[in-house]
């Protein structure tokens, strides 16, 4: 990968650089509630059934669409449509807004654990969507999601 590739415009990143931009927080794998009357978005602690709640990684990333057909494939084009849906700390969202990565991002810190140590990830704070009905998601809203 190129040196400081994350500072390039997103549409100039190579596929491996694009994938490497992910900070590993796991927040994109949380189920969200969009309130139609206000347009507000609430993140819940209810995670995709494929999310490993400790590592904050997909347990079957390569074949995730077999098990979760509506899992979004994030691309620079798709990002323009759904950036608002990503957490404010997301590297993809930050870079699409022309903002720098946070110091805890592993590309800056050099340590994959720094996102967890900074308390940014959802490590050990989730429940599987297999154990919670969609009607009960309101009970799992995360108020303090950074």
Task: Give the distance, in angstroms, between the N- and C-terminal Cα atoms.
Answer: 29 Å
- Provide the residue-averaged pLDDT: 94
Largest sheet: 3 strands, mixed
**So what's the oligomer here?**
single chain
What fraction of residues sit in β-strands?
A: 5-15%
Helix content: 10-25%
Number of domains: 1
Number of H/I helices: 6
Number of strands: 5
**Class derived from helix and strand content:** alpha+beta
Q: Which stretches are poorly predicted, pLDDT < 50 over at least 5 residues?
A: none
Q: What's the shape?
A: globular
> What is the string of helix and strand elements?
HEEEEHHHHHE
Show the helix and strand layout:
Elements: H1 15-20, E1 30-34, E2 41-47, E3 51-52, E4 57-58, H2 64-67, H3 76-82, H4 91-96, H5 106-109, H6 114-117, E5 127-128
Parallel strand pairs: 2-5
Antiparallel strand pairs: 1-2, 3-4
Written account of the structure:
With 146 residues, the chain is α+β, with helices and mostly antiparallel strands. It has one domain (10-139). Helices cover 21% and strands 12% of the residues. The protein has six helices and five strands; from the N terminus they run αββββαααααβ. A three-stranded mixed sheet has the order 1-2-5, with no helix packed on it. It has a two-stranded antiparallel ribbon with strand order 3-4. It is globular and about 45 Å long. 21% of the residues are buried. The model has no long low-confidence stretch (mean pLDDT 94).
Give a nutshell description of this structure.
With 146 residues, the chain is α+β, with helices and mostly antiparallel strands.
């Amino acid at each position: 990968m190129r040196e400081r590739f994350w500072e390039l415009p997103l549409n100039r990143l190579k596929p491996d650089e694009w994938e490497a931009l992910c900070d590993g927080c796991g927040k994109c794998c949380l189920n969200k509630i969009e309130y139609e009357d206000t347009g507000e978005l609430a993140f819940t602690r209810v995670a995709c059934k494929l999310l490993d709640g400790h590592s904050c990684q997909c347990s079957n990333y390569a074949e995730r669409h077999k098990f979760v057909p509506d899992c979004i494939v994030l691309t620079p084009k798709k990002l323009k449509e759904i950036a608002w849906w990503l957490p404010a700390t997301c590297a993809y969202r930050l870079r699409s807004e022309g903002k720098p990565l946070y110091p805890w991002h592993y590309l800056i810190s050099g340590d994959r654990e720094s996102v967890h140590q900074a308390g940014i990830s959802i490590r050990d704070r989730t429940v599987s969507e297999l154990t919670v009905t969609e009607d009960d998601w309101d009970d799992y809203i995360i108020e303090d999601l950074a």
